[in-house]
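To: structure subgroup
Subject: Chain for Friday's discussion

All,

I'm putting the inputs and outputs inline so they're searchable in the archive.
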Amino acid sequence: MIKIMNYGEVSNSEIFARDNIASNVEGVVAEIIAEVIKNGDDALKMYALKFDKAELDSLEVTEAEIQEAFDAVEPEFVQIIREAAANIRLFHEKQVRNSFIINEQDGVVMGQKVTPIEKVGLYVPGGTAAYPSTVLMDSIPARIAGCEEIVMVTPPGKDGKVNPVILAAAKIAGVDRIFKVGGAQAVAALAYGTQSIPKVDKIVGPGNAYVAEAKKQVFGKVSIDMIAGPSEILVVADATCNPRYVAADLLSQAEHDKMASAVLVTDNREFAQKVSDELERQIPLLPRAEIARYSIDNNGKIIVAENNLMLAIDIANEIAPEHLELCMDNPFDYLDKVKHAGSIFMGKNCPEALGDYFAGPNHTLPTSGTARFSSPLSVDDFVKKSQFTYYTRDALRTVKDKIAFFAGKEGLDAHGRSATIRFEDEQ
């Protein structure tokens, strides 16, 4: 049963489960990465047999396999994927940044050049689960950014095939190449390249503890989006809300995995009890009841900030949740007060699942309190910025002595001389 407590009974830092990566996976992941670097495709096939029970002749998904999968998915779901993709595209097109030039000073031109990352690797969980939403969320911003090649890796089933809905989503989103590889070995392949899989410049996408640890270990060799921890939801709700809806929203995250955290902050103890009762009624009805039960019992909490909804917002800011629901009639009154959250869901008719699948904003979000300093996946993650400077000789002449003076203060005389030497012939 979920714990109900008054504000202050537990520190805010302990409200969510914060353990990102199990420490005992570090050595295993390091061995896997080393094996992939040494043996390339052979190592990937060996791990596919060991971990996925799949015997693979080749790693890349063929066009024929993609078309076969696309034809196997019911047309209604294909249409839903297309609509979701359109919503995601519409939202992310607004994020595109332009290069700029400043030439307001005589003889001086400065600017910033925005360039797409050339090759991007997408990790999509697979095997027993299928997440076509992740395909859309990770690949569409990369496509909008203008990345030249988008490479996707995802674990195969025991039959050596990729789940058809994953392939259908990849076809709709415009993924260039798809490989039947999962786990830490897939991350290693993207980071270092193998005979079949090209080395990429950035790896994005969620995964289990082994995938997260692998991304951590290859960071620096390639860029990564983030180290994602267990899923989190924080619901701020007042007593006017329907407890059935709030309980369902909490369970939408609790069913992810046993380490997921589902927390309600409310200003009314009676409402808190109603939500707790609803959780007990709804959990047994879920196909993933065992997972949801563990998550709710061990990581779930209801915090009562008695008659003080603004305190509830302060608690949310301290926690910096991945998903924040403002379940109230006037959510926009509080939006400016929210400082730290990955994605904010406004009002009583906006369940977090809207963001997971369909609305348009990205569902790859900062977890474990990192929303205090990081952002959802966006088009920005798939571009890099170069700055440029141009000075005429006359423009440099006006500042050369200032550069030399500044450099002298830092004890770097050669810096200063590189500016003044250009004018020694004038003296």
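Points worth raising on Friday:
The longest strand covers residues 108-116.
Residues 26-51 form the longest helix (26 residues).

D.
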